[in-house]
Design goal:
With 93 residues, this protein is an alpha+beta fold. It has three helices and two strands, in the order ββααα. A hairpin with a 5-residue loop joins strand 1 and strand 2.
C-alpha cells in the first residue's frame, strides 16, 4: 500500500477536508498525543446489534442462513389451509 503525505489547512472553525477518498464514509479520528491525529475508515454497528458479533455461534447460524437463502434453499412454509381448518374446529367447540 502506498502512503501519501499531504499538506492541508484547517479552517477557522477547526474543519479539515480529507478529499474524495473519504467522501460519504464514517471515520475514526484518534488523537495520538501532541499534534498527531490518525484518521481511519470505519464501519459502525448499532449497540443493539453488537451482541450478534460477540456470539460466534449465532453469527455463524445467521451467515449459514444467508448463504442458504442466496442458494434458494428454503424450508416449506406453514400449511395455512390446515391451520384455518383447525381454527374453525376450535371455534366450534
Amino acid at each position: 500500500m502506498k502512503y501519501a503525505t499531504l499538506t492541508k489547512n484547517v479552517d477557522s472553525k477547526g474543519r479539515l477536508t480529507l478529499g474524495e477518498a473519504f467522501a460519504n464514509h464514517t471515520v475514526l479520528v484518534e488523537s495520538h498525543g501532541e499534534g498527531e491525529v490518525l484518521v481511519r475508515l470505519a464501519r459502525v454497528i448499532p449497540a443493539r446489534e453488537a451482541w450478534l458479533y460477540a456470539n460466534k455461534a449465532a453469527l455463524a447460524s445467521v451467515r449459514r442462513g444467508l448463504e442458504q437463502a442466496a442458494e434458494g434453499q428454503f424450508t416449506p412454509g406453514p400449511d395455512l389451509k390446515a391451520a384455518a381448518t383447525l381454527a374453525e374446529q376450535l371455534q366450534d367447540e
